[in-house]
Design brief:
Blueprint lengths: L26 E2 L6 E2 L18 E6 L6 E6 L6 E2 L7 E6 L5 E6 L6 E6 L6 E2 L7 E6 L5 E8 L3 E8 L6 E2 L7 E6 L5 E6 L6 E6 L6 E2 L7 E6 L5 E6 L2 E6 L6 E2 L8 E7 L2 E9 L2 E8 L5 E8 L4 E3 L5 E6 L2 E6 L6 E2 L7 E6 L2
Antiparallel strand pairs: 1-9, 2-5, 3-4, 3-30, 4-5, 6-7, 7-8, 8-9, 10-11, 11-12, 12-13, 14-15, 15-16, 16-17, 18-19, 19-20, 20-21, 22-23, 23-24, 24-25, 26-27, 27-28, 28-29
C-alpha cells in the first residue's frame, strides 16, 4: 500500500512554525530564452488527426536537472520554459490557460512561482523557506493551496493568492495535515490530518475556518479527489477506492482491496479513472463506474505514475517508465510523447 503521507521533498529549509507568514512583494525574475528542441512531429494516432492539438506542460530531466517544458499533445515542438540548474517543477495551469504555477529552488530554497504560458514573466509569489509539495490552483484561478513540512513531526497546509498576497496557514494542529484538494466551487478544501490519532479526512472553508472531520474509520485515507459537481469525494484507503458524500455520509467501497488502487481523476460524475497495482512493478488504469462498480480496462503503466485528464475528458496523459504517453478514454490510441532514456513527469493539459 502506498504510504498515505508519501511526499517528494525538493530541498529548502524546513518551516519551523505554522503562523501567518508575511508575503514579500512578488519578485520578477529574468526569463530564460525559450528553446525549441524539435520541429518534427511524431507519428500521430488516428484520433489525433480529428482532434485539435492541445498544449501539455511537463517536467523533464533531459538537461541533467528538472526543467519545465511545453509540448503539443502529440509530442511535437517541445519548448523549454525555464532554465535554472537548481530545479524547476511544473505544478499546473491557471483555469484560463494563460499562466503556469510551479515551484523552484532557484533562490536557495523551495518557493512557488508563476509564469506566462510562453515562459515569460517568471516571478516568485512566496517567501516561506520551506519544502513545498501538493501544490494546486483553485478552479477560480485566484488561490493556490500547498503543503509545507516542519521537520519530521508535522506538515501544514497554506493558501496564497496568485499575485503573492495573503499567504495564510490554515492548519490548526501540530500534526500532519496533507493531501489538500479544492472543491469545484473553490470555496472548500478537503484534506487528510492525523490530529485525532490516525489519518482521517476533513473539510474546511477556503480561509481555514469551519474545519470538520468527515471520516471515522481508521482506514488511512489518501489521494482525495472531488466529483465535478462537488457532491462526492473519492479517496484511497487500505488498498481500495471509496466514495462518500461531501458531508461524509454514504461511504461506499467501489474497488476491491487486493490491488492497492487509488483514484486519479473523474472522467464524469459517473466514472472515475483508477490506478491499480497488479505486481511486477506494474499498474493498470481502469475507468470505474461509481454506481455498480463496473470496471473498464484502459492501459498498463509502470508502478510509479501520474496521470492527467484532458479538458474534454477524452484523453489521459500519464507517465510510465519515465515516458509521457497519451491514451484515449476508451483505451485506444496509446502514443508515446517523449523519448526513452530520460525522466519526464508531471504532465498537465492546458485548459
Amino acid at each position: 500500500m502506498r504510504n498515505w503521507f508519501w511526499i517528494i521533498l525538493v530541498g529548502g529549509v524546513f518551516l519551523a512554525a505554522c503562523g501567518t507568514s508575511p508575503s514579500a512583494s512578488p519578485a520578477v525574475l529574468p526569463t530564460a530564452s525559450l528553446t525549441t528542441l524539435s520541429t518534427v512531429a511524431p507519428a500521430t494516432s488516428p484520433s489525433q488527426t480529428h482532434r485539435a492539438l492541445r498544449k501539455i506542460v511537463f517536467t523533464s530531466f533531459r538537461d541533467g536537472h528538472p526543467e519545465i517544458y511545453l509540448m503539443n499533445s502529440d509530442g511535437s515542438f517541445p519548448v523549454r520554459l525555464t532554465q535554472n540548474p537548481e530545479g524547476n517543477y511544473a505544478a499546473g495551469w491557471s483555469p484560463d490557460g494563460r499562466s503556469i504555477v510551479f515551484h523552484s529552488g532557484r533562490d536557495g530554497n523551495d518557493e512557488i512561482y508563476v509564469m506566462n504560458a510562453d515562459g515569460t514573466g517568471q516571478r516568485r509569489i512566496t517567501q516561506l523557506k520551506a519544502s513545498i509539495f501538493a501544490l494546486s490552483l483553485s478552479q477560480s484561478g485566484t488561490q493556490i493551496v500547498f503543503v509545507t513540512t516542519a521537520g519530521e513531526s508535522s506538515s501544514k497546509i497554506y493558501t496564497a493568492q496568485v499575485d503573492g498576497s495573503a499567504v495564510r496557514c490554515l492548519s490548526v494542529s501540530e500534526n500532519y495535515d496533507t493531501s489538500p484538494a479544492w472543491a469545484p466551487d473553490s470555496h472548500s478544501i478537503a484534506f487528510v490530518s492525523t490530529r485525532d490519532g490516525s489519518p482521517e479526512i476533513y473539510v474546511m472553508r477556503e480561509d481555514g475556518s469551519d474545519q470538520k472531520r468527515l471520516t471515522r474509520n481508521q482506514l488511512a485515507e489518501h489521494d482525495l479527489t472531488w466529483s465535478p459537481d462537488g457532491k462526492r469525494i473519492a479517496f484511497s484507503a487500505d488498498g481500495a477506492v471509496y466514495l462518500m458524500n461531501f458531508n461524509g455520509a454514504g461511504l461506499t467501497q467501489i474497488t476491491d482491496d487486493q490491488h492497492d488502487a487509488y483514484p486519479l481523476a473523474w472522467s464524469s460524475s459517473a466514472e472515475i479513472i483508477v490506478a491499480k497495482y497488479v505486481g511486477n512493478q506494474t499498474r493498470e488504469l481502469y475507468a470505474v463506474a461509481v454506481e455498480g462498480a463496473h470496471e473498464r480496462f484502459l492501459t498498463n503503466v509502470s508502478s510509479d505514475m501520474v496521470a492527467a485528464l484532458s479538458p474534454d475528458k477524452q484523453q489521459i496523459a500519464y507517465v510510465s517508465d519515465l515516458i509521457i504517453y497519451v491514451v484515449n478514454i476508451d483505451g485506444s490510441g496509446k502514443m508515446a510523447l517523449t523519448e526513452h532514456g530520460v525522466m519526464n513527469t508531471a504532465p498537465d493539459w492546458q485548459p
